[in-house]
Write a structure and sequence with these properties.
This protein is α/β, with parallel strands linked by helices. Helices cover 26% and strands 24% of the residues. It has three domains: 257 residues, Metallo-dependent phosphatases (Purple Acid Phosphatase, chain A, domain 2); 54 residues; 51 residues, no CATH class.
Length: 374
């Protein structure tokens, strides 16, 4: 059986006040192209379909468009679980009716442990979807489980893989596995606990995981497909992907398929003038940019000026001068004889590491006199 594993779509995501809906539409179109050009027997979406528990109308419409577009050329089963960003109830709306169309949204805690047996030709496989388990998902001896790993252990205790005989067993879960590589765009602590052990997934032939945004292995037969787009600048070097998984009893083959975005995310570093004029930065005009300025002086309105060259710039960082560059800059508050000009000179030295030019000093003193008159 050949499955496509993806997760962490975060539909409706906004990055530095920039909506990513068009980028998400673009990348979902690429996933449709993969399924159209390389037929699979199932699609697994391991949580965080939406970016918020109450998604925008546009985000809901985008998911509807994707599923409708998929059904136009394929009747493969789709299994979706809610992640920690999703609302299980909202995502699972009409799930009983949708299941008749081979669309399985597995949001109920009560169904944890029940296998979902799906067929592809002569092949069958047993799927065990586990929605994100937050605090209080389970009660043990009438007390809520407060620890995420304990909740996952309770979920696993409800699964009896022997009931599925010799069928391949696939777990779909949304959690943070120990020692996973995190980025700035996901919540690093979920459900009140930092992580779960990868040993929990030993009974399965493959565990399709969601939550961590970097594609990575999470055990011998468990993996994160990662998010479909870069959702923070800490991921600028990452290559996003979906995972094509060919599975038989006792056999597993995984083929990562890169997802190339409509607009890449890059970090640029240099002086303000070089970013504005240097040819080496010209190829990044259409990318999402975080610029780090190396100038020793603070640049006013840097974002607005750089946007003339980089229309999709989202962030500008300016490194403050070091102590060595700006000098001590200490003001002796016990000195009652110090003047406004003295304070200005010390503060300017502290900010910029040099004495203010005569014209700037004159302007400041004139403004000070106007202020005293008012």
């Amino acid at each position: 059986m050949k499955l496509l594993h993806t997760s962490d779509w975060h539909l409706g995501r906004v990055l530095h006040e920039q909506s990513l809906l068009e980028d998400q539409h673009y990348i979902l179109t690429r996933i449709l192209d993969i399924l159209k050009n390389e037929p699979h027997d199932g699609l697994l979406v391991a949580g965080d379909v939406y970016d918020r528990t109450l998604p925008s109308a546009d985000a809901v419409s985008l998911l509807s468009w994707f599923l409708s577009s998929l059904k136009e050329f394929s009747d493969i089963p789709v299994i979706i679980i809610p992640g920690n960003h999703d609302s299980s109830r909202r995502l699972s709306y009409c799930s009983d009716i949708l299941a008749a169309s081979n669309l399985h949204i597995w949001g109920s805690i009560e169904d944890v442990g029940q296998p979902l047996i799906l067929s592809a030709g002569d092949e069958k496989a047993a799927f065990f979807p586990i929605p994100f388990l937050d605090q209080g998902s389970f009660y043990i001896e009438e007390k809520p489980v407060r620890d995420h790993e304990a909740a996952m252990i309770e979920a696993m205790s409800r699964i009896d893989v022997r009931d599925t005989g010799d069928l391949p067993r696939i777990c779909i879960a949304h959690c943070f596995v120990s020692n996973g590589s995190v980025s700035d765009s996901e919540r690093s602590v979920v459900g009140g606990s930092a992580s779960v052990s990868p040993d929990l997934f030993q009974p399965f032939d493959y565990a399709a995981l969601g939550h961590l945004h970097r594609p990575q292995e999470a055990g011998e037969r468990a993996a994160y497909s990662g998010s479909i787009l870069k959702y923070s600048f800490s991921e600028y070097n990452d290559v996003k992907e979906v995972r094509s998984v060919e599975i038989e009893k006792g056999s597993l083959k995984v083929n990562p398929i890169p997802l190339l975005p409509r607009r890449d995310m890059v970090r640029l570093k240099g002086s303000f003038s070089s970013l504005l004029d240097s040819d080496k930065f010209s190829s990044y005009r259409e990318d999402y940019i975080e610029a780090e300025l190396t100038d020793s002086l603070l640049i006013s309105n840097a974002m607005a000026t750089l946007r003339k060259r980089f229309p999709w710039i989202l962030s500008v960082k300016q490194q403050p001068p070091t102590v060595e560059e700006r000098g001590e800059g200490e003001i002796d508050i016990s000195d009652t004889k110090r003047s406004l000009e003295d304070d200005f000179n010390v503060f300017h030295q502290y900010l910029y590491g040099e004495e203010a030019a005569a014209e700037k000093k004159k302007l400041f003193l004139n403004l000070g006199k106007e202020g005293e008159k008012e």
